[in-house]
Design a protein that fits this description.
By secondary structure, this protein is an alpha/beta fold. Helix content is 44%, strand content 14%. It contains 18 helices and 18 strands. The strands form 6 sheets. Strands 2-1-3-6-7 form a 5-stranded parallel beta sheet, sandwiched between helices. Strands 9-12-15-8-16 form a 5-stranded parallel beta sheet. Strand 13 and strand 14 form a beta hairpin. Helix 6 packs across helix 7 and helix 10 packs across helix 12. The chain is globular and about 65 Å long. About 5% of the residues have low confidence. Keywords: ATP-binding, Coiled coil, Nucleotide-binding, Phosphoprotein. GO terms for molecular function: ATP binding. InterPro entries: AAA+_ATPase (IPR003593), AAA_lid_NorR (IPR058031), CheY-like_superfamily (IPR011006), Homeodomain-like_sf (IPR009057), P-loop_NTPase (IPR027417), Sig_transdc_resp-reg_receiver (IPR001789), Sigma_54_int (IPR002078), Sigma_54_int_dom_ATP-bd_1 (IPR025662).
Length: 444
């Protein structure tokens, strides 16, 4: 994944670039809006970090101009200013998220990993789709499956209400995409959409992330900070993987839902909130309630309206349209407009169970588009996990060490992939691990 960092301070650029690189992503830098816009237009940038102030220029004005150009990549604004107004201004200007200085490498990693995950689920990545493909994730909402159509019909009616929504579904089914879609259809669509990933932080840090904290409230709290609840004011607060919310925080979230009130960590002043909450989980919350791990009153507060996204295995009529939409995107990226699946490959796609859902499908199609020697993708271009009977190239009586098989496979992917990050995604390992393996193999 390619990440652009825009800041007028050299030390910030160098620190951020080093951090992004150490995480395993490719870093690009720009000192001013003109350099940044040029890089956005000339390079395939997937995410951007942007300072709120760029010398005498406004980072938010630049972000607005980026959006006006039709560039819809995720943008994270960092600022030294702790006011909730600055955070809300950033989100209203088109920022995906914000981060307050001083920040730490783990904060950057968390944000980039979340963006990386989202890119695997969207039916078409966030930048403008090539001709012939559906823009953004619209293909997800044009399902031929009756169960999905019913869910989306309820979702469209619920979007205009102020009711809390609970989205259920396995990992990779598009819960985050649906949450953003609901926000875009609501009366709050011009206000911030703020995401909190519940399992990504410890209990104490998650409470601070949600509600904010006062200076000195805990070790490392060097300044007053507003949380995501304040940043989402008048907009939508999306609580991803709510089933993993620590029990200690559940009463505080319940109070937010019931009373529209909260306090920052270390603060006695009660504050009011005006947010619409959408939550999502891949867990069975009823079972969590029965086991005593999730509050029953919170469960019913969250599920005023419940939406369920079925796994791909229950959407057989959607499998080929989704796969072909992914393929059209990658064919456009690689300038191979005639790329297509053979009938045998189509049959393989239809017969597979897709445990990883949309995320897995996107990865499989990207891999096949890279490995295909011509315009036709056959079953042999698909991972062996998709084959009913995996054919071995090892002849009887010839033993080959596992390490050698792994090395040959890695070499093949590295030869075909356009970047280390793309190769790592196809191999389903992180970039840092692939870098070490490549170095050990003498390919670095």
């Amino acid at each position: 994944m390619n990440v652009l960092i825009v800041d007028d301070e050299k030390n910030i650029l160098e620190t951020m670039a080093a951090t992004v690189t150490s995480i395993g992503y490719q870093a690009f830098t720009a000192h001013n809006p003109r350099q940044a816009m040029r890089q956005l237009k000339e390079k395939d940038i997937h995410a951007m970090f942007l300072d709120m102030r760029l010398g005498k220029e406004s980072g938010l004005d630049f972000l607005k101009s980026v959006r006006n150009e039709g560039i819809q990549l995720p943008a994270i604004v960092f600022t030294a200013y702790s006011s909730v107004e600055s955070a809300i201004d950033a989100l209203k200007s088109g920022a995906t998220d914000y981060i307050q200085k001083p920040f730490y490498p783990k904060d950057i990693k968390q944000m980039l990993d979340r963006i990386h995950e989202d890119r695997h689920v969207e039916a078409v990545p966030a930048k403008t789709a090539p001709a012939g493909t559906k823009k953004r994730s619209t293909i997800l909402f044009e399902s031929r499956q009756e169960s999905v159509q019913k869910t989306l019909a309820v979702a469209e009616k619920a979007a205009s209400s102020e009711a809390n929504l609970l989205i259920l579904g396995q990992s990779g089914t598009g819960k985050t995409v649906l949450a953003r879609h609901l926000h875009s259809l609501s009366s709050r669509s011009q206000e911030p959409f703020v995401t909190v990933n519940c399992p990504s932080l410890s209990r104490d840090l998650l409470e601070s992330e949600l509600f904010g904290h006062m200076k000195g409230a805990f070790t490392g709290a060097v300044s007053d900070t507003w949380g995501k609840v304040a940043a989402a004011n008048k907009g939508t607060l999306f609580l991803d993987e709510i089933g993993e919310l620590p029990q200690e925080i559940q009463p505080k979230l319940l109070r937010l839902l019931q009373e529209k009130e909260y306090e920052r960590v270390g603060e006695t002043q009660t504050r009011s909130s005006n947010v619409r909450v959408i939550a999502a989980t891949n867990r069975n919350l009823e079972a969590e309630v029965e086991a005593g791990r999730f509050r029953v009153d919170l469960y019913y507060r969250l599920k005023v309206i419940e939406l369920s996204l079925p796994p791909l295995v229950e959407r057989p009529s959607d499998i080929l349209p989704l796969a072909e939409n992914y393929l059209a995107y990658f064919a456009g990226e690689s300038k191979r407009p005639n790329l297509h699946f053979s009938q045998e490959a189509q049959n393989t796609l239809l017969e597979y169970g897709w445990p990883g859902n949309l995320r897995e499908m996107r990865n499989v199609v990207e891999r096949a588009s890279i490995l295909s020697e011509n315009d036709e993708i056959g079953p042999h271009h698909l991972p062996s996990s998709l084959q009913e009977r995996e054919e071995s190239s090892i002849r009887p009586g010839h033993s080959v060490p596992l390490a050698r098989l792994e090395e040959e496979h890695i070499r093949l992917i590295l030869e075909k992939a356009e970047s280390l990050e793309q190769a790592a995604r196809i191999l389903e390992i992180d970039t840092a691990t692939l870098y070490r393996k490549r170095k050990r193999m003498g390919l670095a």
